[in-house]
Design a protein that fits this description.
The protein is α+β, with helices and mostly antiparallel strands and 183 residues long. It contains two helices and eight strands; from the N terminus they run H-E-E-E-E-E-E-E-H-E. The chain is 28% helix and 32% strand. It has an eight-stranded mixed β-sheet with strand order 4-3-2-1-7-6-5-8, with helices on both faces. The radius of gyration is 26 Å and the shape is elongated. Keywords: Coiled coil.
Length: 183
């Protein structure tokens, strides 16, 4: 049994056998890959920690985006049957809302300034195929982009609405809708 762990069985130096050199280089390459992956994961963890520490509000929501019709355009097709809700990690940090694919992502997929928000409001609850009720709200930007957000947690949706209604800059264009159900 001790022969299995003897130093003679491990080749650390150069040998006349080229196979041992190849194996050693392969192990060194694998070790470098593992160290690189570890450094990347540490960077992700540190970034997520910084985001969560500095964020005023964050959490996972299901998101879908829509564009409002321009003047003179026909109204958008009713796409209620299309299931295009995607889970996103949403962070309210400073004057921005950031949309990440995952909480560990280093950069957001999308963002919008609070000053660009012209309307925030509730949407009717959705009944999902798994008999879950999703509570929803929307965020409309001055560019016409509408973020529809939902969660199975009514408390989470109410918290997001409260924070957004408090934080958006009330101006002449900004409207706060309280459950009118406009889609």
């Amino acid at each position: 049994m001790l022969n299995l762990f003897s130093l003679r069985r491990l080749s650390w130096g150069y040998s006349t056998n080229g196979q041992e050199k190849v194996e050693l280089e392969s192990l060194r390459s694998e070790l470098a890959c593992v160290e690189e992956r570890e450094a990347h994961l540490k960077a992700q963890l540190q970034h997520a920690d910084e985001i969560l520490r500095s964020a005023r509000f964050s959490g996972y929501l299901y998101i879908r985006t829509r564009w409002t019709a321009l003047p003179g355009e026909p109204p958008p097709l009713d796409d209620a049957d299309v299931d295009d809700w995607l889970p996103r990690f949403v962070v309210l940090n400073g004057p921005c809302i950031f949309f990440y694919l995952l909480s560990t992502d280093l950069s957001p997929q999308d963002s919008t300034l609070l000053s660009d928000i012209v309307e925030v409001g509730s949407l009717p609850s959705l009944a999902r195929e798994s008999d879950e009720t999703w509570h929803s709200f929307y965020i409309l930007t001055r560019q016409g982009l509408r973020y529809e957000c939902s969660s199975i947690s009514e408390v989470q949706v109410d918290s997001w609405l409260k924070v957004l209604m408090t934080d958006i800059k009330p101006g002449s264009e900004t409207k706060v809708s309280n459950g009118s159900g406009d889609v």
